[in-house]
């Protein structure tokens, strides 16, 4: 049977008309391209991003809900049997036991929380302090920029270990929050310089000049036009710094300057196990291995984000 003929006077559905209709519908539903959308599309295709994101997700879940990974509470003294000290890995103790007879696997799992908290807290503080000061200094320039730049040079001249020792000696106690504050005080100049340089580059762009010519206020220029286009380097550095701060906390705890017992961190576990390393290597090797994997995962993630946000590397 033949198809029904179109009504008289009706325009024929030509191929060009159908193509124009489809093109118009696609134009209405197409989502505009942008830096962040392109970066996310690029990240999803990078194996380096996938591997690092999975590792970081596991560590974050371990830090947030350690009971999902072990039923043993390392803070319960009843779970430590001195007669079982320095045993090797077994079905009852996957990573063996430490010098006090405590389960090394449970302590490693619970130690992730304090180590990650120090890294996250220090990263947030340095990104906020250094980022905001760098934004203002780069946008304003003049004497304010000169003063802040000289202040950062003073902090860069202070040795990290000596500065941390001085700050932590003021508090007279090593907790997660005092270590976080000590690291943030020493590390914010780095994010300040990176943000300042990015803002100085962005403030001379045509879109900023046009917005200033249209009467945009200083606050609108900084936070609406400059900040979204200058924050990418800060995100990359903060991602890498998160792993660096976790390693720094472990170093301070290893030296006896960081988090103190009865809190548990990977650095503190390594420090406690080094004296009997030849008798029982597990209490040192397992937290050290998890520390290394975590730091490496954040560095890998930062490298992947950097490559995705830089159009020249695509």
Kindly describe this structure.
The chain has helices spanning 15-29, 35-43, 47-64, 104-140, 142-156, 160-171, 176-202, 206-213, 218-230, 232-254, 266-273, 282-309. Helix content is 68%, strand content 0%. It has a single domain, classed as MetI-like (MetI-like fold, Orthogonal Bundle). The chain is built from twelve helices and no strands. The chain is elongated. Residues 12-17 and 19-30 have low confidence and may be disordered. The protein has 314 residues and is mostly helical. The termini are far apart.
**Given this structure, which CATH class is correct?**
Mainly Alpha
Question: Roughly what percent helix?
Answer: 55-70%
Could you say which structural class the secondary elements and strand pairing correspond to?
mainly alpha
CATH superfamily: MetI-like
From N to C, what is the helix and strand string? HHHHHHHHHHHH
| Shape by Cα distribution | elongated
Q: Could you give the count of β-strands?
A: 0
Stretches where pLDDT falls below 50 for ≥5 residues?
Answer: 12-17, 19-30
Distance between the termini: 56 Å
Average pLDDT metric: 80
């Amino acid at each position: 049977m033949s198809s029904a003929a179109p009504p008289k006077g009706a325009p024929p559905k030509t191929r060009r008309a159908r193509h124009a209709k489809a093109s118009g519908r696609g134009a209405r539903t197409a989502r505009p391209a942008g830096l962040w959308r392109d970066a996310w599309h690029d990240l999803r295709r990078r194996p380096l991003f996938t591997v690092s994101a999975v590792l970081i997700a596991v560590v974050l879940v371990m830090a947030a809900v350690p009971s999902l990974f072990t039923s043993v509470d390392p803070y319960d003294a009843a779970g430590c049997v001195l007669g079982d000290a320095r045993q090797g890995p077994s079905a009852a103790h996957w990573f063996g036991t430490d010098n006090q007879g405590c389960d090394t696997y449970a302590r490693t799992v619970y130690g992730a929380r304090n180590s990650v908290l120090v890294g996250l807290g220090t990263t947030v503080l340095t990104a906020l302090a250094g980022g905001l000061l760098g934004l203002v200094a780069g946008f304003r320039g003049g004497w304010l920029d000169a003063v802040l730049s000289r202040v950062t040079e003073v902090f860069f001249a202070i040795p990290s270990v000596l500065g941390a020792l001085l700050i932590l000696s003021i508090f007279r106690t090593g907790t997660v929050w005092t270590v976080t504050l000590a690291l943030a005080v020493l590390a914010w100049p780095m994010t300040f310089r990176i943000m300042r340089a990015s803002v100085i580059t962005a403030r001379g762009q045509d879109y900023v000049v046009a917005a200033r010519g249209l009467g945009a206020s200083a606050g609108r220029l900084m936070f609406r036009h400059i900040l979204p286009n200058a924050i990418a380097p800060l995100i990359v550095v903060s991602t890498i710094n998160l792993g660096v701060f976790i390693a720094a906390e472990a170093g301070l705890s290893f030296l006896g300057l960081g988090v103190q017992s009865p809190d548990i961190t990977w650095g503190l576990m390594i420090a406690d196990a080094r004296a009997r390393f030849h008798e029982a290597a597990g209490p040192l090797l397992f937290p050290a291995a998890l520390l290394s994997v975590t730091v490496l995962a954040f560095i890998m993630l930062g490298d992947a984000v950097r490559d995705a946000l830089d159009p020249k590397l695509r």
